[in-house]
Specification:
single chain, alpha/beta, 6-stranded parallel beta sheet, 12 strands, elongated
Length: 348
């Protein structure tokens, strides 16, 4: 059998060079980029294989086509989108890239026109925020020959695309565990959009926290939402109309929590004396509402910065990128939560 070392004319990949040299892919990358902390003997062995195989080194300074990165959203009206743009810009500007921001629902005929415009711009890379791509759309985007990173995608995009997201399950678990630790056992949850992966992760975390405490979940307290303020208001009205209403609400996100505030006050109730409310995201308004909203801080700006840095790693030719990078969340306790008042219905 002809071994790699004998294939003097074949075009090698970094993975093949690593395999032949008996080292890891990151070690080969360090040699190619002139990094330190590689043993002299190892460096020499790798260099010899690189020379023999005729591997074309990428320039240490990335070659830009247009100096542009495309950032695409399904909508630009949310605080979440503003923070994503801020994070991407933080890193892109430092690296010398401009950012083209688009709002687009990738569906049917509009996809073709968008891809045509993207190809004409010759953008260096693409960041897609909250998108559910089918295999055909993924193939079309890959045909442009540019690296792609997804930020908080809707579904499972497959093993070929790197995704950046937050620890939604853990965040929801922490929020629910905190309410349970205060003594609440009738905790409602207002869910998010069914097609979003983060919605199911938050619901799973909510349920897991109850299981860990041995507290039964009343399914009548789990109502749907769509992450809008209006959905939070409507869902809370439904919850407050129950014969045995909840003593706390995990609103699924901050916007729905603000809707819950509105309904609770319309009903003549007080926060947190009559009902506690927890959100998710920690958008700036969460600190300024009265009382301040207890919420899960999602590192949105950091997610966007990580996505942009990951895209730069792709542009530098780095291989074996992780399929998913997940950033941690943090419980932020403010005035919207307290222990259930004496006499409140809170039986498991």
């Amino acid at each position: 059998m002809v071994g790699l070392a004998e294939e003097g004319t074949s075009r090698a990949t970094i993975s093949e060079i690593a395999r032949e040299a008996g080292v890891s892919v990151p070690t080969v990358s360090k040699v190619l980029n002139g990094h330190a902390h590689v043993a002299a003997e190892t460096r020499q062995r790798v260099e010899e294989i690189i020379a023999r195989r005729g591997y074309a080194r990428r320039p240490t300074r990335r070659s830009k086509k247009a100096g542009l990165i495309d950032l695409v959203f399904p909508g630009l009206g949310s605080e979440w989108a503003r923070e994503i743009i801020e994070g991407v810009e933080n890193v892109a500007q430092e690296a010398g890239y401009g950012t083209v921001v688009s709002s687009l629902s990738i569906d049917g005929s509009r996809t073709r026109a968008w891809l045509s415009n993207l190809a004409e711009r010759k953008s260096d890379g693409l960041l897609l925020a909250v998108y559910d791509l089918d295999p055909k759309q993924i193939r079309r985007i890959k045909s442009l020959g540019m690296p792609v990173v997804l930020i908080d995608p809707v579904g499972q995009p497959g093993p070929d695309l790197t995704t950046i997201g937050a620890a939604n399950w853990k965040g929801a678990y922490s929020a629910t565990e905190y309410l349970l630790s205060l003594g609440h056992t009738r905790i409602a949850m207002i869910g998010g959009r069914e097609d979003l992966q983060c919605s199911s992760a938050r619901e799973d975390g909510f349920l897991a926290a109850h299981r860990a405490r041995g507290v039964a979940v009343d399914k009548s307290l789990m109502v749907p939402g769509d992450f809008s303020t209006e959905a939070g208001e409507t869902a809370t009205e439904e919850l407050l109309a129950l014969d045995s209403r909840p003593t706390a609400i995990f609103a699924g996100n901050d916007a729905q929590a603000f809707g819950a505030y509105r309904s609770v006050r319309k009903a003549g109730l007080r926060i947190p004396e009559d009902i506690s409310i927890v959100g998710f995201d920690d958008i700036p308004a969460a600190e300024w509402v009265e009382p301040g909203l207890t919420t899960i801080r999602q590192p949105v700006v950091q997610m966007a910065e990580t996505a942009m840095r990951t895209l730069l790693r792709h542009l530098d030719g780095e291989e074996n990128m992780p399929e998913r990078i997940e950033l941690g969340t943090e419980l932020i306790v403010r005035g919207s939560t307290a222990a259930p008042a004496a006499g409140q219905v809170s039986a498991a």
